[in-house]
Amino acid sequence: MLSLKDLLQGDKRAIAQTISAVENGTNTKILEKLYRYTGNAFHVGITGPPGAGKSTLVNAIAAELLKQKKKIGIIAVDPTSPFSGGALLGDRVRMTDLALKKNIYIRSMASRGSLGGLAQKTKDVALVLDASGMDFILIETIGVGQVELDIAQVCDTTVVVLVPESGDSIQALKAGLLEIADIMVVNKGDREGSDRLLTDLKFALELREQTAGWHFPILKTVATTHEGISALVSEIENHREYLDKSGQLEKERKSKIAMHIHELIEEKIRSHLRKSVISKAELARIADKVYRRELNPYVIASEILSGSGLNI
Amino acid sequence: MLSLKDLLQGDKRAIAQTISAVENGTNTKILEKLYRYTGNAFHVGITGPPGAGKSTLVNAIAAELLKQKKKIGIIAVDPTSPFSGGALLGDRVRMTDLALKKNIYIRSMASRGSLGGLAQKTKDVALVLDASGMDFILIETIGVGQVELDIAQVCDTTVVVLVPESGDSIQALKAGLLEIADIMVVNKGDREGSDRLLTDLKFALELREQTAGWHFPILKTVATTHEGISALVSEIENHREYLDKSGQLEKERKSKIAMHIHELIEEKIRSHLRKSVISKAELARIADKVYRRELNPYVIASEILSGSGLNI
Q1: In a domain? residue A289
Q2: Of A171, A258, A291, the CB nearest to B254
Q3: Range B236-239, long-range pairs (CB < 8 A, 24+ positions)
Q4: A157: pLDDT strictly greater than 80
Q5: Mind listing the pLDDT tens digit for each residue in A37-52?
Q6: Which residues of A touch B171 (CB under 8 A)?
Q7: Distance between A68 CA and the closest CA of chain B, angstroms
Q8: Inter-chain contact B296–A36, Cβ cutoff 8 Å?
Q9: What burial letters (b/e) apply to B157-180, b meaning 16+ CB within 10 Å?
Q10: How far apart are alpha carbons A206 and A135 in whole angstroms?
Q11: Beta strands in chain A (DSSP E)
């Protein structure tokens, strides 16, 4: 039995149960009910290539925020292979100490092959944590693809983490990471090449600085020894203040809401399509004919819609 | 003036014009018209992390296939940053020699920030090349995200390329690359660590081998010196034969067609939604109220649909 009251008070068991219900789709009404209690948490995305030390950095940020008496939710998104199973989640183990503390809740999300729905699920889980009274929600993703860019949409501030290793800045450019960064972190900053990377990033971000009102800080950290972490948390606070005062926080959250509504409508239509418009057997029969080039997929798609009663 | 006849005969200018028309959406009827001439090309995806030497490998495979008098289309998908512009496409320059040959057509696709539509555009371009009489279509992607997994869907055979550098096999696991691989290639196989990587991959693929009828070859190549390339092309042919004889080629192509029809219907509904169901201004007004938590997005999405005349 899910208790909304317990959830709103930040009860860990209630959070866990609610997230499970949301993830499994067993209680679709729950998001509707808790929505009015959301909108208070500040969402920080931490993203970067594998091996950049994101988990350690997230741990360090959380520890710093805990000192400031903040309540923190962490979502670690890990597109793990169904074959490798949970093995790669091993680095989560380090988080255990933190997870036992009072004002923190950590959730790992593995895609188990269904990358498509991962961004949506992450957003839903963030809503649950938001309603549970978290001040900050830290969302850690491997910054490599569309899912990450989708998840970045849910974040107010995006921190992109790189390490001074060959190819990293080029990879970041290719993946479009620099365009979503509000704050850049060069982690493992005690390693060779970190100054070179700092210069590269400064150069790459100059263009964006000219057109934005934000100064795009580039910080060096050594997450394992907590070096540079309090400066990073300060910059996160600075960015929040900047968003707030400039009116951008409100503006961006509204446009995210509009997008969310659009997605909800699309999902309803998709589900209607699957259930009512065309049966699997019928689609298979049609695909058979298209395979033999007796039918044209473009023509048949229009015909299915005309016959669907959808009035399109 | 687009000429379907010229396209079907493999005229390079007609191919270029048709692809441009498809990419820009200036001629939506063209795919409908050329569809019946498709279905003959064999699609090979070549994917892997940045720096694995995919472009060089694709060049080498193409050169090998050219010797066998095959006609080859190459699509290089490059999610380039709008900030870095075309600079990262520099490595395409190497392809120029090949591009001038008679039986080959090379197309680079940059996402220019619109990752979402990239997979669909790639599939459309593949249809154009298919209709133009290509025997093989090689599709090169950076194997890191959802787009790549989407594009893998269009390929009959997927070749995953790794290099013997630290973290590569773990990264491949995390990105779900091993699950889509039909053939694994350890490129730059003359470097230290390549045997270790081979062993790792063998171990990782053992599980899949037990449940599949295919032996998942793992090959060493040095693409720059053409080492191992003819063995790779042989394995691609072997995989094609396996797919053909086992009936899987037909089965998978049919299920891809079913998916394609589904996507076409969804796209039509989405476009209807954008144009007719709810205006931008109206959505902004609603988002405003949701932001203040006066409205609930889940409830309002249902209401918009009920009032839309869509009969859902």
Answers
A1: no
A2: A291
A3: B236/B44, B236/B61, B236/B157, B236/B159, B236/B183, B239/B156, B239/B157, B239/B182, B239/B183, B239/B214
A4: yes
A5: 999 999 999 988 777 8
A6: 50-51
A7: 28
A8: yes
A9: bbbbbbbbbeebbebbbbbbbbbb
A10: 32
A11: 42-48, 72-78, 104-110, 136-142, 157-162, 183-186, 218-220
Look at residue A301 and tell me if it is in a domain. Answer: no
Rounded distance, CA B212 to CA B208, Å? 6
Q: Nearest residue on chain A to B265, judged by CA atoms?
A: A301
The CA-based angle A207-A209-A210, given to 5 degrees, is 70
> In this structure, what is the dihedral angle of CA atoms B300, B303, B304, B310, given to the nearest 10 degrees?
150
Q: What is the ipTM of this complex?
A: 0.81
d(CA A161, CA A159): 6
User: What gap in Å lies between CA A246 and CA A253, rounded to an integer?
Assistant: 13
Residues 6+ apart with CB under 8 A from A150: A119
With beta carbons less than 8 A apart as the criterion, state whether A297 and B31 touch: no
B25 phi/psi in degrees, rounded to 5:
65, 20
Contacts for B223-230: CB closer than 8 Å, 24+ residues apart: B223/B53, B223/B56, B223/B57, B223/B59, B223/B60, B223/B187, B223/B188, B224/B53, B224/B56, B226/B60, B226/B63, B226/B64, B227/B189, B227/B190, B228/B185, B228/B189, B229/B57, B229/B60, B229/B61, B229/B63, B229/B64, B230/B64
For residue A192 the two structure tokens come to 């060779």
The per-residue pLDDT for A115 is 47
Check CB contact under 8 Å for B301 and A79.
no
> How many angstroms separate the CA of residue B67 from the nearest CA in chain A?
30
Pair of tokens at residue A100: 């036992």
Count: domains in chain B: 1
d(CA B171, CA B99): 32
Residues of chain B with pLDDT under 50: 80-94, 112-115
**Residue of B20, B23, B16, B253 whose CA lies nearest to B117:** B23
Q: What is the DSSP letter of A273?
A: I
Is residue B9 domain-resident? no
Within the 246-275 window of chain A, which residues sit less than 8 Å (CB to CB) from chain B?
A: 250, 253-255, 257-258, 260-262, 264-266, 268-270, 272-273
The torsion angles phi and psi of B213, rounded to 5 degrees, stand at: -90, 10
Contact indicator for A236, B273 with CB cutoff of 8 Å: no
Q: Which domain holds residue B144?
A: 35-246
Q: How far is CA B242 from CA A149, B234, B246, B255, in A?
A: 37, 12, 6, 18
Establish if A284 touches chain B: CB-CB under 8 angstroms: yes
Nearest to A75 by CA among A46, A107, A49, A47: A107
Q: Is residue A73 part of a domain?
A: yes
- The domain spanning residue A236 has which CATH number? 3.40.50.300
Cα distance from A150 to chain B (closest Cα, Å)? 10
pLDDT at A228: 96
Residue with tokens 């590269």: A200
Only one residue has tokens 């999300």, namely A109
A265 Cα to chain B: minimum distance (Å)? 5
Whole-model pTM: value is: 0.71
